[in-house]
Q: What sequence folds into this?
């Protein structure tokens, strides 16, 4: 690896880090404005014009609060919990192809930090590690509500991971590759996977909501039953990290959904452009797709009420997994037929 | 840094975290050290260019099985006061069992020194990648692969039956 590549990758990592955090911060603003709009209120409008500085005010507030660790809590695990959450939320962005190659200073720069040949599996690996942040934090707080929240979160995430994986396999079957880069390239122009696999997208979307602990699946932090769920005992920036990691993973998983089902950076009619113009166009298209998916996720939160826990398990095990398996079988048969294996 | 250096460092970290699993007094911390050990083993796989195995090891062991371990331990809420007292007899049996395991490990180590050449044997460049692994599984190792999948199904059906048993009595 030469030095230029090292610099270029480090710059990309830093940029992605800042963008993820910035987007996450402004997602909170957007979510509050959207909630206000849906509930016919004004929403935050005091900090700056249209309340645009609200996230900064919130962040400052988080930092200035007292950082409290309960006396009987397991101190180290209590500190590590939010860190793991944030780490797993951020690291997935390293395998996402953010756009076509950008030409800067005479070098072709790939807008993907690591072109893994098993990108999708990496994403699932990180998702499965993400449970630890919540579990460890919830247990270490030494509070029964936190423990309930942690246990709900982990059982929910393990149950929905299955259906998520099975629905994602159909995309791998269609593409014939586990690399996210290949998946995006195979959807060139308007040839998006959503037109071939609408059912898989539907399942993937629902399971993503469950993995994100977003409404209607936000039982781990269900405030009417569990006070605050797994982060009941957290305060200051540790709580901030938990809340922030939720928004960051929302951003990243929207990006994953855009990559897998909505063609990633592909736009219809992209062949008319080339070079840097194409790169900028592709990044803009990708950002727009991510924005729309985030909008739908927030829209769902303020529309659909929370599930009951038995309903959640019923939906996961008895509805989503069988449907996903049937979908996978049919896809397999069609792929085998097209390849002439039958 | 050479490959050998990296593998030595990784190996010692793996062994250190593995030791911490046993030495740590707290069951939850033991589980977390075990998760860390799995991560180091995954890193070893990556070092041998077997990325698929590395990630699958992470998803299955670190991501699923250890979560269930942690789950059970959290519900049990083990602590010092509830620890059962160890009798002289159980100490004695533990020493014998541990000693036997140690003997097996020593013989295995002796074999590697005898037959193994060097520290890391990096396989053919892309032997661990998904394509190669899939081709091998569906040609050379087809029968073992299918038999193990039948075993899995049998275990799954057994688990479902065990979990459902109470209901059948009510019927």
A:
């Amino acid at each position: 690896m030469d030095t230029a590549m090292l610099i270029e990758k480090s710059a990309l990592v830093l940029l992605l880090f800042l963008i993820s955090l910035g987007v996450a911060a402004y997602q909170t603003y957007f979510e509050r404005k959207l909630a206000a709009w849906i509930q016919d209120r004004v929403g935050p409008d005091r900090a700056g014009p249209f309340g645009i500085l609200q996230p900064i005010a919130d962040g400052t507030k988080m930092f200035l609060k007292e950082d409290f660790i309960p006396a009987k809590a397991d101190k180290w695990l209590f500190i590590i919990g939010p860190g793991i959450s944030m780490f797993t939320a951020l690291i997935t962005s390293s395998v996402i192809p953010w756009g076509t190659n950008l030409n800067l200073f005479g070098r072709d720069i790939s807008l993907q930090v690591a072109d893994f040949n098993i990108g999708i599996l990496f994403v699932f690996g990180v998702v499965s590690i993400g449970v630890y942040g919540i579990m460890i934090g919830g247990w270490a707080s030494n509070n029964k509500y936190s423990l309930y929240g942690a246990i709900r979160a982990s059982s929910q995430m393990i149950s929905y991971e299955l259906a998520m994986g099975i629905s994602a396999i159909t995309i791998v079957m269609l593409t014939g590759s586990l690399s996210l880069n290949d998946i995006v390239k195979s959807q060139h122009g308007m040839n998006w996977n959503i037109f071939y696999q609408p059912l898989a997208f539907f399942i993937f979307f629902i399971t993503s909501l469950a993995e994100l602990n977003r409404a209607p699946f936000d039982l781990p932090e269900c405030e009417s039953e569990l006070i605050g769920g797994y982060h009941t005992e957290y305060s200051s920036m540790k709580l901030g990290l938990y809340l922030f990691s939720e928004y960051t993973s929302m951003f990243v998983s929207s990006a994953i959904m855009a990559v897998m089902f909505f063609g990633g950076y592909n736009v219809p009619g992209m062949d008319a452009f080339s070079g840097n113009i194409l790169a900028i166009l592709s990044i803009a298209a990708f950002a727009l797709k991510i924005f729309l998916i985030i909008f739908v996720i927030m829209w769902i939160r303020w529309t659909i009420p929370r599930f009951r826990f038995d309903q959640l398990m019923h939906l996961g095990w008895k509805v989503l997994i069988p449907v996903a398996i049937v979908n996978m079988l049919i896809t397999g048969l069609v792929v085998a037929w097209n390849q002439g294996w039958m | 840094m050479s490959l050998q250096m990296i593998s030595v460092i990784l190996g010692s970290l793996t062994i250190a975290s593995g030791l911490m699993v046993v030495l740590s007094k707290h069951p939850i911390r033991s589980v977390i050290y075990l998760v860390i050990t799995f991560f180091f083993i995954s890193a070893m796989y990556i070092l041998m260019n077997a990325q698929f195995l590395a990630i699958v090891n992470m998803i299955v062991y670190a991501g699923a099985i250890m979560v269930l371990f942690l789950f059970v331990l959290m519900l049990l809420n083990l602590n010092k006061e509830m620890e059962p007292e160890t009798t002289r007899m159980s100490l004695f049996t533990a020493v014998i069992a541990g000693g036997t395991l140690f003997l097996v490990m020593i013989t295995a180590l002796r074999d590697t020194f005898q037959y193994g050449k060097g520290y890391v044997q990096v396989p053919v460049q892309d032997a661990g990648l998904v394509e190669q692994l899939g081709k091998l599984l569906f040609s050379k190792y087809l029968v073992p692969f299918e038999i193990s999948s039948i075993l899995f199904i049998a275990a799954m059906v057994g688990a479902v039956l065990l979990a459902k048993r109470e209901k059948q009595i009510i019927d």
